[in-house]
Amino acid sequence: xxxxxxxxxxxxxxxxxxxxxxxxxxxxxxxxxxxxxxxxxxxxxxxxxxxxxxxxxxxxxxxxxxxxxxxxxxxxxxxxxxxxxxxxxxxxxxx
Amino acid sequence: xxxxxxxxxxxxxxxxxxxxxxxxxxxxxxxxxxxxxxxxxxxxxxxxxxxxxxxxxxxxxxxxxxxxxxxxxxxxxxxxxxxxxxxxxxxxxxxxxxxxxxxxxxxxxxxxxxxxxxxxxxxxxxxxxxxxxxxxxxxxxxxxxxxxxxxxxxxxxxxxxxxxxxxxxxxxxxxxxxxxxxxxxx
Amino acid sequence: xxxxxxxxxxxxxxxxxxxxxxxxxxxxxxxxxxxxxxxxxxxxxxxxxxxxxxxxxxxxxxxxxxxxxxxxxxxxxxxxxxxxxxxxxxxxxxxxxxxxxxxxxxxxxxxxxxxxxxxxxxxxxxxxxxxxxxxxxxxxxxxxxxxxxxxxxxxxxxxxxxxxxxxxxxxxxxxxxxxxxxxxxxxxxxxxxxxxxxxxxxxxxxxxxxxxxxxxxxxxxxxxxxxxxxxxxxxxxxxxxxxxxxxxxxxxxxxxxxxxxxxxxxxxxxxxxxxxxxxxxxxxxxxxxxxxxxxxxxxxxxxxxxxxxxxxxxxxxxxxxxxxxxxxxxxxxxxxxxxxxxxxxxxxxxxxxxxxxxxxxxxxxxxxxxxxxxxxxxxxxxxxxxxxxxxxxxxxxxxxxxxxxxxxxxxxxxxxxxxxxxxxxxxxxxxxxxxxxxxxxxxxxxxxxxxxxxxxxxxxxxxxxxxxxxxxxxxxxxxxxxxxxxxxxxxxxxxxxxxxxxxxxxxxxxxxxxxxxxxxxxxxxxxxxxxxxxxxxxxxxxxxxxxxxxxxxxxxxxxxxxxxxxxxxxxxxxxxxxxxxxxxxxxxxxxxxxxxxxxxxxxxxxxxxxxxxxxxxxxxxxxxxxxxxxxxxxxxxxxxxxxxxxxxxxxxxxxxxxxxxxxxxxxxxxxxxxxxxxxxxxxxxxxxxxxxxxxxxxxxxxxxxxxxxxxxxxxxxxxxxxxxxxxxxxxxxxxxxxxxxxxxxxxxxxxxxxxxxxxxxxxxxxxxxxxxxxxxxxxxxxxxxxxxxxxxxxxxxxxxxxxxxxxxxxxxxxxxxxxxxxxxxxxxxxxxxxxxxxxxxxxxxxxxxxxxxxxxxxxxxxxxxxxxxxxxxxxxxxxxxxxxxxxxxxxxxxxxxxxxxxxxxxxxxxxxxxxxxxxxxxxxxxxxxxxxxxxxxxxxxxxxxxxxxxxxxxxxxxxxxxxxxxxxxxxxxxxxxxxxx
Lengths: 95, 186, 981
Known about the structure:
The structure holds three protein chains of three kinds. Chain B is an alpha+beta fold. Chain B contains five helices and eleven strands. In chain B, about 25% of the residues lie in helices and about 35% in strands. In chain C, helix 5 (about 180-190) links the parallel strand 8 (about 160-175) and strand 9. The longest helix of chain C is centred in the middle third of the chain and has 15 residues, at about 450-465. In chain C, about 55% of the residues are buried.
């Protein structure tokens, strides 16, 4: 597969390491009342769609950026690639 | 002055080199390296400091620039600086003196081994080594890629000259891969 | 022997003669020949025996679709079985042998199978070798293995080299026939980056096999001119001998270039084959079409071949299987073969055409409405029995029969990404479907355009459309544009031993039987009868099987279905996929800075991940590794030892938020610790399980060096980048690996400080007061070399780790050895390192094994509840905090001579030994020279409160039972007095 890196352009997927569902960005608040339950869901529960899937890829053999890749798991069509850092910020993550 | 003898990454006291057909491959140990990563909110300052250090605008994505001290892009707001070892062994502390708190600097001199490939058919060798579109690479282009499962930087110095930086501990493996590709392609 | 069946003309170089051997007989050939064409020219029709019935077989085709003429090529370690004679390019000195026959090709003992054929029908193996079950391993399997298979392996290492490579282009054109050449010309002239790949050694495709004209010249002249023009274009790369084997995601194609198969001897260093990964923006499939046979009784005798192949051999290779031939066809193309052979002086006995309205000829007889009903000839075709339209029979005395059942477009690559071909009624064939691999278009015969002019035109248009070219296309040469005329005809009624799949010996009767037994799906049919399952993947047989199935089911062919083609298009040696990644080069080797020194010392090495580390350093007279390791441990604990620990991962963490960042990464507190200090840290995974441990040294307010275990260096760095970019994007922290930049040595033992005081420059105070336990800092050594010093200990002794730039690592090791002589310094390897850490009770990879929590490791109190760190929340969950949770303990045998074995399980002193009563297990074990006893570390239920208990250590697999005592994991210096000395 070819991943259109937002900074580097088309790069072979062999340069990347796959992690999984991009929902891993949405790490729960450790002080919330239901933290234990929320962390359980965060750590263990994943959707497994036949179709569009937002997933995390790490450009280990490249610029070491984490990317959020929107990929159709049926056709392997990649419709969108974003820097995970930007996605994390839009999802309200900071420090 | 200390009296410890330096070895090259290939384990010799001097660099190894070999030629196959029209292409030569030379180990290039006489280079000092330092990584520079801009601190959050200090990107512009870092670029300015790099411009002063290299005598050239800080290189953009996939680019390299500079004169005695050269820089190449390695990641978002992150560069590698290279300079002659003889005169710049303390490159990291020198760079840190320039960028001060605008950037994080890390000595990388001996993290890498460098091989320079030179010759008119050098691209025929590179296409057996990595998936970069080497035929399209022009002077000043730099890219990170995988060679024989090793994370490497490939820099185009001029039409016929490329540098490959690979992990120092695997210098022997990298050299073997390069020479095998030279024998194969040339 | 003379080339008795060599014709005039052809694209062979008669000025050179090549010698070759087949079954140890000498023959001659010319450059341009294949092994198959050369054998035919030499009057050899019999080339092999079939898979199941050992029937005599000759060549069926003139290309890579060949099912029959499989040979063992070359000798010794280079011997390659099942190589298609039709694609072997002739070279001087070639040696090949027929296969699947004994004692000889002409007399084969297992040909008896042919007489037993009525027992060896579809599903024979499934039905026969079932009962009794005990017979399977001892009797049936060896029997089947002996009888089955075609060629034999050399059983030696492949001595050849193979490469992988990467190429990029705007347009990849697959196939260099009329469509491909015209496409390349169109794209090349427009300046695009073009790769034109063809499996043949001669570009031109079908044009090389035809007699007709392009403009006013022979087709081969146009081919030569076009290839010459393309060769001169720097933007066009011609890749003959290159088979595109698969269409992968996003425009990536796999292609195998046979760089050395046509050479008698491979020059040193040159690969035999290169597996190219071609990155294309667009691709054009111009793979042409494959002729299909018609099934009739005994249609497999040597001399019976595809009509188009007969024409190829005559026109291109100037060879014929016989001087007197017949043709059996259902379409006009068969007549083309007759006309071409007639023109070459080959006698046409008759053209047998199933159509009553077949064209006639003034040159030879055409039998309209006739069918071939049987053939005769023991080792090669002698007679063809024809059933005439009027019901009478006629026998033709011929040495060859060309068969044409029409042509199937080569749609294979269009199916590699779930594409399904669609049925074309006019062609009675499958053509590419609507869903193609993105970026791929199809031109020429592969797209069902069966005329030469149509191929040229669609090639030019295909290239122009793919590249969105504006303006005029190159002028097309004038070429034949005859429409396809055929009547679908798959097999002759009433036949039983009529072969569909000649390689796997599947007959019309087998297909009928499988239908009768209830196999309705094409995929089931394939697997039950093995139709299309051989090395040719049914290129000439699938359609026939499908047509018969459709007829039996009373459905149309498209309703019955088609099988999907998968990569690779033709067989690829496994070695080609491996490329250079074999033997020592299977993975990169990482050498630590002291490697060359250690080699001089005679060290024994061990692979740790990719690292090659010294395991121990034997001295003269030491005959067992334990002697060396025990000595290294004793000497280190008594005085001082040095070990290369460069392999530990080192990550430079900088930035104003670096301390906060580490506080999130590690489960224990990191926010407040002083510059110049080092701290032990435990990293958890988010699920509360330990991920890795190590130390963080604070060199400045905003600068830390984090160490990881050797094994987890890459994973931890990746994890830290994940947390930095995905979870804490606004933290000011920068990461970079410095593992390789610094040579780092552990100097351990009571005299380690004294030794280092001779190395570290005197202005640095490394006394216990000036540089206490867990101290760190920048120093200089040996008169001014920059270095880093850490007072940390894995061995439990007073110890330091000293780091210098890697290029000086070798010199520093030699200096430590020289300066350490007065202290009786000893270098120690990973084995002694491991013994000492077990003695000290330090957890390592065996304990951080992906199932253990901080609590299990005895570090529950380290997990800070006052902060948010990865894994902290889930480490508190109930399941990980049961009262009888596993806790790390030490074990010692009760009887001093007994051994502790890692992997053994702990059971109570009495009671049953089974999983239900399992109390824990041993993770690490060693002989401790310090205690003069075997010792072990492990996990035990409620282990914190069971010290002093006697238990049984069992390993049912090795029938081990040892009585052990549970003790503290800290066997040596439990109070840590040595560390702080």
